[in-house]
């Protein structure tokens, strides 16, 4: 069942979103050769706690850390550990925050060192597909309109979208209805109504979109071990359009 949010509830999700922006601002400048992913996780947790939030992922279905950090062929749900970043690594950093009973969720992909153009194109495709879908958004759209637009943006650039994981409603719970697939058909699915809050999260692959989970039970990697990128924001739809609750366009 889809739970539409009041203005007040959207404001509270926005407070969680503000903490996420602070996490990105702290972690992004740390992305460099030799930094362990666990160090990024520690800083994320510190920023969340200092700002009156709770890490949303920690303990979720037994997940052990604050952030999900997925490198290169890892798409989502990578567990931070002692592994040190290397030049050219793609770092997908996914973070959820709970504050006053409401959740926000967002992800970015960064590159370590001098950007490689092919890897940057993969990163840009995930971001551009979300930005493009939001820019195209019109009153009366259904979830399928978002899904198809995201898919088209990605495929136009020669990449693919992961099918096995999707975006989601968000609010009093981290994952709420409806699911927001990154592929689909315009005109299908639930109507996007004022008060709908969605975590929209394109997961993009350089090769085939098929994925599998590693032995650790969490890390989702591409089957062909080609690179992936992930970009996610928490978006509130309103009478007059939408509000991005986890980005002000800087990071
Ligand atoms: N952002 C992820 C999602 O929406 C959440 C990671 S799952 C967790 O699926 F277990 F790490 F919390
Ligand atoms: Co999410």
Attribute tags:
27% helix, globular, binds cobalt (II) ion, 26% strand, 5-stranded antiparallel sheet, 251 residues, 4-stranded antiparallel sheet, binds 2-amino-4-trifluoromethylsulfanyl-butyric acid, Creatine Amidinohydrolase, alpha+beta
Task: Describe the secondary structure blueprint for this structure.
Layout: H1 7-27, H2 37-50, E1 54-55, E2 67-71, E3 74-76, E4 90-99, E5 102-111, H3 117-136, H4 143-156, E6 160-161, E7 167-169, E8 176-180, E9 197-200, E10 203-205, E11 211-213, E12 220-222, E13 228-230, E14 233-238, E15 241-244
Antiparallel strand pairs: 1-4, 2-4, 3-12, 4-5, 6-10, 7-8, 7-9, 9-14, 10-13, 11-12, 14-15
Helix pairs in contact: 1-2, 3-4
The chain binds 2-amino-4-trifluoromethylsulfanyl-butyric acid and cobalt (II) ion.
2-amino-4-trifluoromethylsulfanyl-butyric acid binds next to β4.
Please tell me about this protein's structure.
The protein has 251 residues and is of the alpha+beta class. It has one domain: Creatinase/methionine aminopeptidase superfamily (Creatine Amidinohydrolase). Helix content is 27%, strand content 26%. The protein has four helices and 15 strands. The protein has helices spanning 7-27, 37-50, 117-136, 143-156, and strands at 54-55, 67-71, 74-76, 90-99, 102-111, 160-161, 167-169, 176-180, 197-200, 203-205, 211-213, 220-222, 228-230, 233-238, 241-244. Helix 1 (7-27) packs across helix 2 and helix 3 (117-136) runs antiparallel to helix 4. 2-amino-4-trifluoromethylsulfanyl-butyric acid (MF3) binds at residues 57, 60-61, 63, 68, 77, 94, 96, 105, 199.
């Amino acid at each position: 069942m889809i739970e539409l949010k009041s203005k007040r509830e959207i404001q509270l999700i926005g407070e969680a979103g503000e903490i996420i922006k602070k996490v990105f601002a702290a972690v992004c400048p740390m992305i460099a050769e030799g930094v362990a992913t666990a160090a990024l996780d520690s800083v994320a947790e510190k920023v969340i706690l200092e700002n009156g939030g709770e890490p949303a992922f920690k303990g979720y279905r037994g997940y052990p850390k604050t952030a999900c950090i997925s490198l290169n062929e890892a798409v989502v749900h990578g567990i931070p550990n002692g592994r040190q970043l290397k030049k050219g690594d793609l770092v997908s950093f996914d973070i959820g925050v709970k504050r006053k009973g409401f959740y926000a969720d967002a992800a970015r992909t960064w590159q370590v060192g001098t950007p490689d153009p092919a890897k940057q194109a993969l990163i840009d495709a995930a971001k551009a597909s979300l930005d493009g879908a939001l820019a195209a958004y019109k009153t009366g759209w259904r979830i399928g309109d978002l899904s198809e637009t995201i898919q088209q943006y990605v495929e136009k650039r020669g990449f693919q979208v992961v099918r096995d994981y999707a975006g989601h409603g968000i609010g009093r719970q981290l994952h709420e209805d409806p699911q927001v697939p990154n592929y689909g058909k315009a005109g299908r699915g639930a109507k996007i109504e004022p008060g709908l809050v969605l975590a929209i999260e394109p997961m993009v692959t350089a090769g085939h979109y098929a994925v599998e989970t590693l032995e650790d039970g969490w890390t989702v990697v591409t089957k062909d071990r080609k690179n992936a990128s992930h970009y996610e924001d928490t978006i509130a739809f309103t009478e007059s359009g939408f509000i991005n609750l986890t980005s002000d366009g800087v990071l």
